[in-house]
Amino acid sequence: MKTRILFFCIFLWGTTMAQYQTKETSERPPFPWPEGIKCAVSLTFDDARLSQIDKGIPLLDKYNIKATFYISPEHLVKRLDGWQQAVAAGHEIGNHTMTHPCTGNYAFSRDNALEEYDLDRIAAEIDQANAYILAELGVEAQSFAYPCGQKFVGRGAQVQSYVPLVAERFLTGRGWLGEGANDPWLCDFSQLLGMESDGKAFAELKALIDKAAAEGCWLILAGHEMNESGHQTTQLTSLEELCQYVQDPANGIWIDTVEHIATHIKENRDIK
What is the CATH topology of the domain spanning 33-268? Predict the structure, then answer.
C-alpha cells in the first residue's frame, strides 16, 4: 500500500510540474526581436577551409550577408590576405582552438586526442588561438566553436567539461550536429546548438528556417566547405537561394553574425 501511495505521489507531482511548465511556456511573451522580425539566423563555418575564401565569402558579399567563421590557424595562413579582407568586410572571426583536438576515435586526431587532455591544456589551446587571431587579424574573438562539437577532456571518472572555460572567455560557444534552433529566452550562450548546413538542399534549409520563424527562435547553421558539391560541403546553390530567401522582408528573418545576435538576445531577455 505504501508503495502504491508513493508511486501515486510521484505521478501526481510529475503531472503537476508538466502542467506548470506548459502554462509558463504558453504565457511567456514573444521574444522582442527587432520590428518585423520573426526569428534570427546565423551562418557559421568551421576550419578556415580554402573554399570559404575562394567561393563562399564572395557569394555572401554579393548579398551583403555577414557570417561567423571559426578559424583554424593552419588553414588561415594559406589565405591570410583573404581573411583580412573578410574581417574588413564585416564577417566575424571565431576561435576553434589552435590544433582542433577531438576524440582519438577519429583517425585524424588520434595523436591529439581530447582523452589525453586536461583543463590546463585545453585552456592553453584556446588562449593561443585567441592570441593568434589578434596578432594576424587584429580582432578579439568573441565566439567559440567546440571542435567536433565535443566539450569534455580526460577519461572515465576524470572526465571534465571545458564549457566553463569557454564561458569565462567568450560571449558564446557553439556546438555541432544540434537537433534544433536556440530558444532566445533560455539558451545557454556557452552551449549554443548548431545545426548542420552541409549537404542540404535549399528546401531542407528553408524548412529549418521556417520552423525557427514559427517558434521565434535563433537558428545557427554550421558548415565547412562552401562549394558546388563534396564531403562536408554547404552547397553554393543552396546558399544563394537561402541568401535570397532571408533577404525578403516578407519572411521576417534577421540574418547576422553570432556575436551580433547573441548581444541582442542578452540585452533583451531576463536571464543573463
Answer: TIM Barrel (3.20.20)
